[in-house]
Amino acid sequence: MKKYAILLSFLSLIFLSQKTFSQCGSLLDVCHGKLDDARFLKSWPIQLPQQSRGEPLPQVSFKMPLSSGTTYKIFACNAEELPGKVIISIRNHNDDLVITSYLVEQQRHLPMIMFPVAMSGIYTFSFYFENGKEGCAVGVVSSVN
Amino acid sequence: MYKLKLIPVVLSVFVVLFATSCKQAQREEATDLLSDAEIAAAVRLDDEVIREMISSVPNPVEMSSLLQRSGVVYSQELLNPVNNINNYNTNFKRALNLGVYGTNLVYMNIYDRTIATLRYLSNVRDLAADLRVEQFFDYQTLNRLSESARNIDSVLFITNTGFDDMSRYLIEQGRGNLAVLISYGTWIESLYIATHVRTVPPNRDLINTRIGEQKKVLDNIILLMNTYRHDPNFAELIEDLMRLKREFDNVTITYVYREPTIQEIDGMVVLVDNSRSEVNITDELIENIAKVVAEIRNKIIS
Which CATH architecture has domain A2-143? Predict the structure, then answer.
């Protein structure tokens, strides 16, 4: 009987993890709806483990060229099955932080960032989850003009 | 009687099998560039670096959108003729031209030439199938959506994500060389269209600025291509790109860095980036760049 219980728990675990992964993978379809009139340019799937004690915050970065004279609408969608809330930070080619989707002083996540670019160049988009929690999200960059 | 009934069924199956084999025979198997494995460890870039550098190549949607917004007239004659696909018998050529046709597809969609896109869509599907990455293009859905100009954003969304997913997959499969070529094909075609459309003031300045900004992208592409320089085909591409670089070296880009300011409007953050970039590029320089780009691009599509 004990054997069956262990087997059942094991199978449930596999099933649940697969379900989480598949929902994580289909996030872009959900996130697509937030585009409105913006024109889709790029998306990145983000899946990060929980931060381990003494280890640096897990994060992932991507580069993308942004052009002056264009306003970019940048946002992300979180998978609800995992606790992590994604934070986006953007740096210019000089490695200066130009914007983040989390206002530290107000402890508030912003639903999206509108970024009218005046300096063309290759920007770095970094994604990590609040308090180093495990999370899954998709980041989207679109243009609005 | 039962046997007689079976004859049309057997005949139909035979016809379908014959038609399929004929279609496959038209497009020859190519064996070049099947893997990155032969690259010497000393020059091999990490997959993550390749992915990042490919990501730094501008999306053709941006250049085409800029042209359309600037009132530039659509020019079908600038596109790679659909029948050219029959000339592409190596994976090298197929990957480059998958990028070229992909950019053509984007350009046509942005200008609402949805019906005309069908043959280009078919070319993208065929080249992707030749490279064994057709799973990233939902041809049936794209075909259906292309019937109406109202679906342009959905078509662009599916095409864009298809190209991104395909690139990730190729890198994971150790076929990053193909991902690099596809990406390069999209870029050179975008640049070719931008440097050959008829522009008028005042939008000419904006388009010329965007062309000048490609100087930084070109540097990245050369760096990326260099990984594969042991391959004679890549070596030739690099040689061509160095010619282009000599022209772009005359473009000056200056940056003025200032602290950004943030405003919040209706719950949305608007970043006022007070830093500026300025591109200095003359009409003569644009002409020189256009000439070299045309030579490179025509070599690719021939």
Answer: Sandwich (2.60)
A20 to chain B, minimum CA–CA distance in Å? 20
pTM confidence score: 0.83
- Verify whether the Cβ–Cβ distance B260 to A99 is below 8 Å: yes
| Spans of all domains in chain B | 31-253+281-301
Beta strand B268-272 with A112-116 is parallel
Please state the domain extents for chain A: 2-143
**A112/B contact by beta carbon, under 8 A:** yes
pLDDT tens digits, A19-36: 444 456 677 777 888 888
Interchain CB contacts (distance < 8 Å): A and B: 113
**Residue pLDDT, tens place only, B74-110:** 999 999 999 999 999 999 999 999 999 999 999 999 9
CB A141 within 8 A of CB A114: no
- B216 and A122 within 8 Å at the Cβ level: the answer is yes
Three-state SS for B215-251 is HHHHHHHHHHHHCCCCCHHHHHHHHHHHHHHHHHCCC
- How long is chain A? 145
Cβ atoms B253, B212 nearer than 8 A: yes
Listed by number, the residues of chain B in 4-33 with a beta carbon closer than 8 Å to a beta carbon of chain A are: none
Q: Is B293 on the interface with A (CB under 8 A)?
A: no
For the record, the structure tokens of A52 come out as: 């381990």
Strands, DSSP E only, in chain B? 252-256, 261-265, 268-272, 276-280
DSSP letter for each residue of A10-48: HHHHHHHHHHHHHHHHTHHHHHGGGGTTSEEEEEEEEEE
Contact A125, A44 (CB under 8 A): yes
The predicted complex's ipTM stands at: 0.79
Strand A71-78 relative to strand A135-143, pairing: antiparallel
Alpha carbon distance A47, A24 (integer Å): 8
Q: Which one of A63, A87, A101, A140 would you mutate to disrupt binding with B, by most B Cβ within 10 Å of its Cβ?
A: A63
